[in-house]
From TrEMBL:
Keywords: Hydrolase. It comes from Bradyrhizobium manausense. GO terms for molecular function: hydrolase activity; RNA endonuclease activity. This is MBL fold metallo-hydrolase. It comes from the Bacteria.
Amino acid sequence: MRPQDILLPTADGLCCKPGGFHIDPIRPVERALITHGHSDHARAGHGAVLATQETLDMMRLRYGENFAGSTQVISYGEELRLGDVKVKFRPAGHVLGSAQIAVTAKDTCIVASGDYKDAPDPTCAPFELVPCDVFITEATFGLPVFRHGDAALEVKKLLASVALFPERAHLVGAYSLGKAQRVIALLRKAGYDAPIYLHGAMEKITAYYQSRGIDLGELRPAMGMKKAALAGTITLAPPSATSDIWARRFPDPVTAFASGWMRVRARARQGGVELPLVISDHADWDGLTATIAATGAGEIWVTHGQEDALVHWCKTQGLRARPLDLVGYGDEEESEPQPRSEAEA
Ligand SMILES: [Zn+2]
């Protein structure tokens, strides 16, 4: 069977005709398989949704109980037959509950990896390598300039700054789903045991992580705190809030931002970020290329991000490769409703 007879890029997203479903569709479809809870992959309004328990819970948190006609849980490693294909979900190491979806028809296996990272993350199951014939990879950081390094060292930088400026507050911009909880877990791993403060927009999802057994230590809402009491503390907030009127409640805040984009200095400067922290939930260039090679796939489909360089690299390795030109995926926070400062003030 030709791979394109199994999975085909369409305007709605990746479509599996023989299985009767779409993967991470951007428009409402009859049956959707969802890789993870970020809003550019997990949208409301589908007839039926198949995903991990965590992804379904996150969709429920964000969109309410009736986000889909019906839902079905699939565990990592469990095999399901859908129409003429078999599907399996495997950990993607991106955020809690994130999965790669392996679709097998006859002898051909295609893995749609969604967003993934091969770096360690104390808040989710580690990325699992799935040998396959066709590997569909993201390319968010698909340029050789992107090398994320060790996230633990970035957290050390943050703690050094907190020690250096005990009279100032530290405001860390981080995406609400995944990144914020990972930064908190990394702070705890580094031995930081003071209470950590949260912007209201990340309280629910962070409490959900805790309810799934992720130990994040003592967390407090930043709202209602006296300005002086926030000196020497660390607060996590959505990136947009750190440059907002909301930030005025903090004493002389040091603005940090935890993102793979912080490798680009101009980007940090532009955003008024004083303390850039290179911490990403996506594979960097070395991670992408190492993963592609390790899957043993002879054919690589590249989607959302810097497709060109990665497609070119694949060809130099003797692999067949093409960009999928799927639209609608990218920076999750951009597609999230912005936190309302008025409600927070
Ligand atoms: Zn994502």
